[in-house]
Design goal:
Number of helices: 12
Helix content: 40-55%
CATH topology of the largest domain: Rossmann fold
Number of strands: 13
CATH superfamily of the largest domain: Vaccinia Virus protein VP39
Distance between the termini: 69 Å
Largest sheet: 7 strands, mixed
Shape: elongated
Order of helices and strands: EHHHEHHEEHEHEHEEEHHEHEHEE
Radius of gyration: 21 Å
Length: 288
Amino acid sequence: MPVTLAEAINRAAVTFSDRGISNARLDAELLLRHVLRQDRAWILAHIQDVLDAEHQKVLERLISRREKREPLQYITGTQEFWGLDFIVTPDVLIPRPETELIVESALRIASSAASPLIVDLCTGSGCIAVSLAKELPASRVLATDRSENALDVARQNARKHQVSDRIRFFHGDLFEPLDELDIRGRVDIMVSNPPYVPDGLLCILQPEVRDYEPELALVAGPEGTEIHQRIIKAAPDYLKHHGSLIMEMGIGQAEKVGQMVRASGAFHAPDILKDLAGIERVIVAKRT
């Protein structure tokens, strides 16, 4: 039965709300915009138009996926980060607004460097590396990840935003693929949004995260800070004098990660930055 755009949005919103999905109406509208390849202004201007049968079928398939709690970003294949549109697939963690704190911090630090060398560990979709390369035309970025599939997505994003000539991607665990390069003591800024979910807490995360996002990019180990510890231990060998390490952390991890930084003896007292929700989210430590 034919429906108008308004009816299509309303029906999808009710379905999503019944499944416990927050922002149900917004998700419904975004799916319709994705199907029609139109912006919000166009949708509002044509809200009483009848949705043609082919588009209705496509929309119903996407609604079925979303009501199973598949993330909207995997359905549409995109997510905005730092004002840029990033390709996302189930092989990468969905970029989140709080991670922009890493970019903000790195840009403040990079303002004092003519052509900074930046290392991005656990790059995933490449959102941090690409954003920094876009903002810092004179920079060089080296990015690593354990997932070759994730690196394929990151390379696509680098090409999409025309910075692939200044980012080199390496497959491997943290620093391991960088050993072939002569960069010890030369890195200006090291950034990372590492896995930080403790093993036992994955099961209590919302279905969109628990059932769909890559476990490799989420879970760190029993404590959730194991990857942070490895980075803190190895980073001083790569950072130059007064180079900076910037990492994202999970809720309640700031004190422990801060203690790790201080115990290493290789950094000045770290700064802890809060996200918009007031959560201590990012740690910034300067090499002595």
